[in-house]
Write a sequence for this structure.
């Protein structure tokens, strides 16, 4: 019945490849769930749940390590050019997911600092950007699973929405700080949390660009607008 | 006289490898010089020079692209396990250098926003952290060139100094903002600039860890302390 006597030991290149993609998708879903949990924790002001999210980040880091190992195993099989592009994309995408996980853990970490001050209404603005980022992560992972460069391109285009929301929130926070000195410390944490989420959006965009590279090779990407204006923002 | 007739077309594996390392070192020195220039521009309040630094970042991005291409060429030669580790480290280190370049450009970008407000004394604190980060980048590049895991380990240990300075500056900036509402906007830019530099320190640490991996494989790294306490900082 067993036509390939060693298939339980030596897996085919394609099986290993599928496993690698599966690991990356799992890693990505973990990062999306971490961000979702972190946003929830900000709303509920739950320090214990925040601590769990921070601890969970290690599992994502461990998976990135596994991906690197598997990439090395695949590369040792002396792959062709197209396979190598896939391997390179896998490495980069897993690194981006690892960073997304870091940023999500950071949002959770700062939420505990936020809980030392009275609740601020502006956490709702943060949640809106955060939910958009969660959707971006899930959409780009689906594009990766489906090898769909057009879907990836849509994720990339949508990043401008996160940037616009971020810029608005940034300015709102500044006025808030100017009106009430007691709000400065919590608002500073919110500024960094918003920045973390904006960076998560950038990493989703990086993943989208790697999917493009995977499908089209080094063909030039269509141009994209970038709307984060806070680097040069002045007092509104 | 020419003993290897095709050496001008087909380079040896070792020659290609040396070229790759040379590209990464060049890229790293560019990033260190960018950070140095950005710190200088903050002091001199020179918007034109800031614009040049921002434009220069493209050259670093272009070099990362070249490194990726060269890594793929090397991987196609069907390398051995130790070579693969070198290739993997090269990819990761060049990605870290690319991020350092981004952060340096960001410091330059925010300096132009800072110049819209009157000068702040706290830019000196920023410069001190920045100079430390420049040294860290140069030291870790030298460790990479020399394949010196012990030197890399020293860079990694020294990152705690940057974190300590960053935490101090962060708290200082907060009190400043509370004393004078007009300082809030420029201090917010300084907060992000300080954070950019703190992140540069983290990337130098990542590079150090990849040098360790390069030399020792997956042997566990010695533990390291992490002193950035601002994630949970409260009003001093």
């Amino acid at each position: 019945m067993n036509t390939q006597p060693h298939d339980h030991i030596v897996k085919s290149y394609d099986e290993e490849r599928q496993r690698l993609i599966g690991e990356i998708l799992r890693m990505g879903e973990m990062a999306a769930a971490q961000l979702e949990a972190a946003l929830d924790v900000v709303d509920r002001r739950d320090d214990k749940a925040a601590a769990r999210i921070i601890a969970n980040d290690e599992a994502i880091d461990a998976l990135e390590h596994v991906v690197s190992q598997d990439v090395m195993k695949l590369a040792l099989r002396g792959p062709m050019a197209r396979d190598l592009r896939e391997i390179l994309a896998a490495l980069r995408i897993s690194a981006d997911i690892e960073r997304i996980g870091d940023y999500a853990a950071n949002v959770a970490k700062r939420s505990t600092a936020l809980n030392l001050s009275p609740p601020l209404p502006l956490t709702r603005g943060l949640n809106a950007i955060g939910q958009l980022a969660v959707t971006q992560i899930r959409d780009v992972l689906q594009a990766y699973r489906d090898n769909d460069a057009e879907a990836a391109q849509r994720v990339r285009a949508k990043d401008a929405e996160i940037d616009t929301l971020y810029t608005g929130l940034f300015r709102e926070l500044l006025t808030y700080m100017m009106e009430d000195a007691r709000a400065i410390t919590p608002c500073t944490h919110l500024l960094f949390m918003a920045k973390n989420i904006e960076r998560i959006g950038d990493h989703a965009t990086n993943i989208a660009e790697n999917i493009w590279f995977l499908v089209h090779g080094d063909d030039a990407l269509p141009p994209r607008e970038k709307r984060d204006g806070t680097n040069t923002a002045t007092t509104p």
Observations:
- Confidence is low (pLDDT under 50) at residues 1-7 of chain A.
